Structure formats: C-alpha cells, structure tokens
Amino acid sequence: MIAIIDYGMGNLRSVQKAFEHVGAEANVTQDPQDIRKAAKVVLPGVGAIRPAMEKLESMGMINPIKEVIKTNKPFLGICLGLQLLFDESNEGGRVKGLGILPGTVERFQSLKVPHMGWNQIQIKQSGCALFAEIANNSFVYFCHSFFVRPKEKNLNATTTDYGMEFTSAICQKNIFGVQFHPEKSQGLGLKILKNFKDKT
Amino acid sequence: MLVIPAIDIQNGQVVRLRQGKFDDVTVYSEDPVATAKHWQDKGAQILHVVDLDGARKEHLQNAETIVHIARNLKIPVQTGGGIRELKDIDFLLSGGVTRVVLGTKATQDRGFLSEILTQFKGRVMVSIDCAKGRVTQKGWTKTCELNAIDFARELESLGLEYLIYTDIARDGMLTGPNIQALRELLQEISIPIIASGGISELEDLAALKKLEPEGLMGAIVGKALYENRFDLKDAIDLCLQRG
Fold this sequence. Notes:
The complex is a heterodimer.
Chain A: E1 2-5, H1 13-21, E2 26-29, H2 32-37, E3 40-43, H3 49-58, H4 62-70, E4 75-78, H5 80-83, E5 86-89, E6 95-96, E7 101-107, E8 115-123, E9 138-144, E10 146-150, E11 156-161, E12 165-172, E13 175-178, H6 186-199
Parallel strand pairs in A: 1-2, 1-3, 3-4, 4-13, 5-7
Antiparallel strand pairs in A: 5-6, 7-10, 8-9, 8-11, 11-12, 12-13
Chain B: E1 2-10, E2 13-18, E3 21-29, H1 32-41, E4 47-51, H2 52-57, H3 63-71, E5 77-80, H4 86-94, E6 99-102, H5 104-108, H6 110-119, E7 124-129, H7 142-157, E8 162-166, H8 179-188, E9 193-196, H9 202-209, E10 216-221, H10 223-226, H11 232-240
Parallel strand pairs in B: 1-4, 1-10, 4-5, 5-6, 6-7, 7-8, 8-9, 9-10
Antiparallel strand pairs in B: 1-2, 2-3
C-alpha cells in the first residue's frame, strides 16, 4: 500500500488516480498511523512552504514522515513535497522545512514565475530507480515558482534548464523527490510512478 | 508551452517551402549550424530540424549535417524527414540527436514503428500530417480529420510518447494554426502534442497556448521567424506566461 499524505495542499486525487493507473494500491490519508503502516509514502502538494509546515505540524505528521525516511521506506516528494524535505526556504522570509536533506528552497529570480508547462529533464544519476528506462531529455510537466538547491550536487537525479540549471529531481537511497508533476506528465509521468511502485 | 524553431534543410541550405512544395523555395541561410546557434542564443530550448531532401527522396539525405548541428548545440535537437530505416535512426540518435520524428514510415509500417518505439523509447516522435495523400488539397476535410484521430489513437496504444501534428495546408502559409482540429485531437488522446504549421504572429501562439492545459506541449515555428514576423524571445516570453 502506498500512502499519499493529505495535508490540504492541493488536489491529491490526480496523484492517486495516476498510481491506480499503474496498478498500485494508493490510499489518500490524513492519519499518521496510515503513514507508519504504509509500504511506501508519497508527499505531494502545491503552494507555499509555511502553511504546509504548519499543517503538517498540526496534524502530527512531521515525526511519522521522519520515521518513514529513517526506516528506509521508499518516500517520494512531489513539487512542494520535494521542497519540504530541505532545511529552509526563502519564501516570504526564512521558513524552516523538514530538514531531512541539506539545502535551501529558492525563488526563480528575473524569470517568469510560475515556471509552467512542459520542459525537459537531463538525467544526472544513471542508477536512480525512479528514472529507470527513461530517456534523457524527456519532457515532463512543471508548475512551480520555487526550486530546491541541494547542498550536495550528487543528490541531483535530474536537472532542468529554465534560464538556469535547476534541480528537477533528487534521489538518495530511499528518498526520491521530483519538482515536476508526474501525475500530469502523461505516459512518461506514469512510467516514473510505476518505477516508484516497482523498482524502489 | 515550448516554442520550437524549425530548420528545414535542402541542399545543405536553410530554406522554407510553401505547403511543402519542393519547388516553392525561399533560401534563408547557407549555414544551418549558424542558424541553429542563432536560435539557441535567442533562448530556444529545442530545435526541430527537417531533412527536406530526405522527405522528397524518401531516404535520409542530410544525416551528417543534422548530426553536425546536434553536436554543436547545447540544446536538444529533434529531426525528421525521410527517416525510414533502423540504421538511420541509430545513426542519428547515437550521433547526438535527441529525438527522431517519423512520418510516412509510421503510417506504412506499424510493425517497424512498434519495434522502434520499444528499442528507442521516449526518443521517437511521430508527425501526423493531416493532409497526407492530399497535399494539393487546400484546407481541411472531414475525412482526413477522422483519419488523423484514428491514427493518433493507434499511435497512443502503441506506446508513443509525443506527437507532432502538422497541417500541411497551412505549413509555410502564415495563415494561422488549425485550432479546432488540434482541440479535437487533444480531446481524443492523452499524449502531449506539438503543433506545427501556419503560425504567423504572436496571437497564433497565444491561441495555441490556450490549449496547453489540454495537452499541447509546444509549437514549431518556421517561416514567421525567418520573415521576422516576431522575435523568438518575445514568443518564448509569451508562451512562458501563466495561461
């Protein structure tokens, strides 16, 4: 069972539907116990980090997320869910994230935001399970104004060019994160979710 | 939405045709690599290179030139025109081209297409040319519209990841894209689509951008760029804006 954390940040039905489409049993839940029991966990979300952190805290979801990651369960952050994994964001002053990965979340400077639409991913880690059998320069769908800047460059699973090269996916042992929306990236996105289901 | 400049190559030169007629040619440059770099410097994220000699002779002709372009650019290059054989696809993809575009071959030989899609997953596009077999016919007919959709459905079921929709009646005519036909196609299939043909002004891109939420991934722009109808930078800016 894949647990999709529902913390009021965006419509999660599309993520659930996409997982169901690739044959995964996926459950949208607000219950920390479901997160602890799940085989794999997905943290989706769109929007700002501050309300997201407040919501996760009030739901008692922060410790379960950290436990999941510590116990080596496959964890996938999507969009805001990726950004939340990092130390802090400069979104409207400094906002603390979950602090699971070292690095910051920053806003695109001097470029149109949100970065919205199809763009390409350059694959940086050949061994990342999430991108198994995915061609370099494949197109995925983005919608975001902030991006993550990991302290360790080798965290990058893929990068994307949007006036500058930014981290579009990360991969570290059981922790996976994508800045784009696999659930909106058609066949290729489904392939990535299927890889999460089958190969992690 | 991605704005994708087209580079059409005939006899080693950058040219544009009208409605795909090989004798109705305007030469824009003698140096395809310089043209490609120019579009890259203007902010293009992908280039669409067409081997017109290949398309006419039904066999890839400008492979070396295309690989030369791909190797001299930082941005990905997709290419089509006369690609009919596995060895050509292999040559292009291993030579630095990011994606190959199949046209006629995809309509003729589904077995081949299926094999190619398996072998080069994610690096193959198919261009549906709505006026296929009716090149002299202007405008749109219901019959061909239906065929396009049926064919697109079939391609989707074969596992194709990206589709190019070319309206030959409009290509090089600066008459505006066929929004209605594109919308119908987008409603029928879920593969992202790149539109090609007819774009003459920024308003055409604005109209196409409205289809982005339905799955329109980008637009190939040719003549309008070469005739300075608008600046590529302005087009990219427009297409990056929130829809």
